[in-house]
Design brief:
Layout: H1 27-61, H2 63-82, H3 100-113, H4 124-131, H5 147-162, H6 169-187, H7 191-220, H8 222-229, E1 245-246, E2 250-251, E3 258-264, H9 270-287, E4 297-302, H10 309-314
Helix pairs in contact: 3-6, 5-6, 7-9
Length: 324
C-alpha cells in the first residue's frame, strides 16, 4: 500500500527587502536617566530629613504646652459624656403687625358682607342677594340689639380671614365700630346734605374719569397731537392743570342737551387751552358710538388763582400766561 502524503505549499515570500529592526536604545542615554533619577531621590531624602528635624525641635520646645492641650481635650470629652443635656429654650415668634393695606382689606370685607344702600346692579338675583344681606340699625347704639348680635356674626366671619395677618378680635371690633359710625353719620344727614354729598361725589368721579380719558387719548394720538401743536406736549395732561371747578349736569342754553359748565384756571395760556381742546376731540373720536357719555364742557368763567408751585415746576413756560 502506497503511503500518499499531502504536500504543503511553501509560504510565499513578500516582495522587496525586509523591514529594518527597531534601533536599540543608547546605553549612555539610559545611564544618564538613571543618574538623574538617583539625584532627585537623594534631594527628596534630604528634604524629608530636614522637616523631621524641624518637627523634633518644635515638639521638644513645646512639650509642656502639647501635654496641656491633650489634657484639656480629654477633660472636655469626659465632660461631654458625663454632663446632662441642657434644655433649649423655645424661640418666641414675633407677632405679626397688621399693615395699612390689611386694615383697608378689612373695611372692604365688611362692606361686601353688609347691605349696600347704593346698589347699582339691575340683575334680579344680585338685587335679591344684596337685600338679604345684614345692615346696621342706626337708631340704636352699637352695643345693643340687634347690632350687638350682628357684631358677633361679622367678627366670626372676619376673624378666620385676618387672624394670620395680625388682626386681633379687638382690632376687628374697632373696624366694625368705625363702619357703624360712618353709616350712622350718613343716615343722620338731611336730604339737602345728602344731595350736596352726592353732587361732590359725582363731580370728583367725573373729573377723574375725564382725566383718564384725556391721558389715554393723548398717548394713543401723541404724534398727531404734537404735530398739530408744533411742540412736544408730553406730561402736560396732569390733574392740577385741569378745570378748577365743574358744575353738576346742566341743560344747555337751547335746552336740547346736557352739558358741564367749567371754570378755567386763569394762569393757563391760550396754547394750553388749545391743547386741551384738541385732546378732547380725540377723546370723542376714540369713544365712537359711546361719545354721548362724555358730556360737552361749556366754558363758564375764568378764575383769578395763581398757578400752584408744583405745577410751575412740572410744566414748560409756554403753558402759562405771560402776565401771571
Amino acid at each position: 500500500m502506497v503511503n500518499q502524503r499531502r504536500t504543503i505549499a511553501p509560504r510565499p515570500t513578500p516582495a522587496g527587502p525586509a523591514p529594518a529592526p527597531a534601533p536599540a536604545p543608547d546605553m549612555e542615554q539610559i545611564m544618564a536617566k538613571l543618574s538623574e533619577m538617583e539625584g532627585k531621590m537623594t534631594n527628596v531624602e534630604v528634604q524629608v530629613g530636614s522637616v523631621k528635624a524641624q518637627l523634633n525641635v518644635v515638639v521638644a520646645g513645646n512639650a509642656s504646652a502639647i501635654r496641656a492641650i491633650g489634657a484639656l481635650g480629654s477633660a472636655h470629652n469626659t465632660a461631654l459624656v458625663n454632663s446632662p443635656a441642657i434644655p433649649v429654650a423655645p424661640v418666641a415668634l414675633l407677632p405679626v403687625v397688621p399693615t395699612k393695606q390689611t386694615n383697608n382689606d378689612v373695611y372692604t370685607a365688611i362692606r361686601k358682607f353688609m347691605w349696600k344702600p347704593k346698589f347699582s346692579s339691575r340683575i334680579a338675583a344680585e338685587m335679591l342677594a344684596n337685600n338679604n344681606k345684614p345692615k346696621w340699625n342706626t337708631n340704636v347704639p352699637f352695643n345693643q340689639s340687634p347690632n350687638k348680635e350682628l357684631v358677633v356674626r361679622i367678627l366670626n366671619y372676619l376673624e378666620p380671614k385676618f387672624e394670620s395677618k395680625g388682626m386681633r378680635r379687638s382690632d376687628l371690633y374697632k373696624n366694625l365700630h368705625t363702619n357703624f359710625r360712618s353709616q350712622s353719620s350718613r343716615d343722620k344727614k338731611s336730604s339737602s346734605e345728602k344731595a350736596a354729598v352726592n353732587t361732590r361725589s359725582r363731580r370728583a368721579n367725573r373729573a377723574g374719569e375725564s382725566l383718564s380719558r384725556r391721558l389715554n387719548a393723548y398717548l394713543d394720538n401723541e404724534d398727531t397731537i404734537n404735530e398739530m401743536m408744533g411742540k412736544d406736549c408730553a406730561n402736560m395732561i396732569i390733574k392740577e392743570a385741569m378745570s378748577e371747578g365743574e358744575s353738576d349736569i346742566e341743560t344747555s342754553e337751547s335746552g336740547t342737551k346736557r352739558v358741564i359748565r367749567t371754570v378755567r384756571p386763569g394762569w393757563r395760556s391760550d396754547e394750553f387751552n388749545r391743547l386741551i381742546t384738541i385732546v378732547d376731540s380725540h377723546v370723542l373720536d376714540g369713544m365712537g358710538l359711546h361719545s354721548h357719555q362724555f358730556l360737552p364742557r361749556v366754558f363758564k368763567s375764568v378764575s383769578n388763582s395763581a398757578a400752584p408751585n408744583d405745577v410751575v415746576s412740572r410744566l414748560p413756560q409756554w403753558a402759562f400766561r405771560n402776565d401771571v
